[in-house]
């Protein structure tokens, strides 16, 4: 049988789809492109924003137009909360949520035997175990995403994820290390540790922590780089900072969500720090980790955000001097606290503020790269594009340089020479 996959949303979803692809391939299914004719279509959905939800539904409707007999299987955050809505879409035969993705093949066999539409979404009881998913490769990517954690206990007022993913749960250390070894053997010398709340890894484990995991990953032979996909400022403990500082493989780039630009908004978001605490943490990080690049997430147009609040955010962002910003317009999510807050900001204002921050982000990025010109950087080429090798430095600058395709996947010393629009031109040294 032919099976096709489509992933929406975050790195965790990409990891989960990769694990599903491996389990289907191992059972002899032929993996085909999502646009092609297939017998089975599997869609991993997202609902972190209205856009994510709309796009997920659009993708779920596609297979029926290609093959009316197809078995459409839908999983992920959207189906966790909106299973009935999804089951009403033509072609959908099996729906599961954010648990039991390791049982998809069993559910498929059940459907093939009884031809009954299956709703396998489990109501989250906050005692979920970590899904038994495993990957040995990450096809089509040079950097492999390694899911180490699921769920979140934070309940930021704008976020629907704690309701779709449940409480924090961590993958056993031995499985993480075994997976990391396997990925290196498959040619991935860079691994991105990912999770719904990556820095929350270990909070549910006895006698083991995120810091210990970072230390243990140093022992994985051939692993050249470990990137932490995102970590809350509150989880950068002295122990974690010390390990990053002395590590040969953990990169000098950390993505630390800020989300709100002043204390009023941070409080309304139910974030666990003030701007002063955030700034002190960043200063401590920079005092300890050489050439540290910090990127962040920032939400604009949060309910009650005035022009003054926005100007505070711009000012604070400049003070922190991030390398780059990921900017998100506030998206109302039914079921969250922020959905019911007064002072919802209109779309035109939101759009203008997003535009201003994206411009600021470009400026900050260029200033950071300017300081890195003519300095030694190590790059792992990820692909050949427009005749040039393309990859990222340890501090996450995208560079392109002349070189042979055989260098893809290796760590190559370069010097960045020119700042470019899409890619910065470098020379191999
Ligand atoms: S930390 Fe906040 S924003 Fe992140 S997943 Fe948890 S609730 Fe959502």
Structural class: alpha/beta
Low-confidence stretches: none
* Proportion of beta-strand residues: 15-25%
Which radius of gyration do the C-alpha atoms yield?
22 Å
So what's the overall shape? globular
Classify the fold: give the CATH topology of the largest domain. Answer: Transcription Regulator spoIIAA
Mean pLDDT: 96
The name of the CATH architecture of the largest domain is 2-Layer Sandwich
Give the count of helical stretches: 13
CATH class of the largest domain: Alpha Beta
Helix content estimate: 25-40%
Oligomeric state of the chains present here: single chain
Bound molecule kinds, no repeats: iron/sulfur cluster
Describe the structure.
This protein folds into 4 domains: 2-119, Rossmann fold; 134-250, Transcription Regulator spoIIAA, CATH 3.30.750.210; 252-370, 2-Layer Sandwich (Transcription Regulator spoIIAA), CATH 3.30.750.200; 376-428, OB fold (Dihydrolipoamide Acetyltransferase, E2P). By secondary structure, it is α/β, with parallel strands linked by helices. It starts with a strand and ends with a strand. The strands form 4 sheets. Strands 2-1-3-4-5-6 form a 6-stranded parallel sheet, sandwiched between helices. Strands 14-15-16-18-17 form a 5-stranded mixed barrel. Strands 8-7-9-10 form a 4-stranded mixed sheet. It has helices spanning 11-26, 50-66, 77-81, 83-87, 104-114, 161-165, 173-185, 210-217, 238-246, 263-268, 275-288, 307-320, 347-372, and strands spanning 2-7, 30-32, 40-45, 71-76, 92-95, 118-119, 144-150, 169-170, 190-195, 225-228, 253-255, 293-300, 324-329, 376-385, 388-393, 398-401, 412-418, 424-428. Helix 8 runs parallel beside helix 9. Bound molecules: iron/sulfur cluster. Residues 152, 154-156, 159, 161-162, 196-197 line the site of iron/sulfur cluster (SF4).
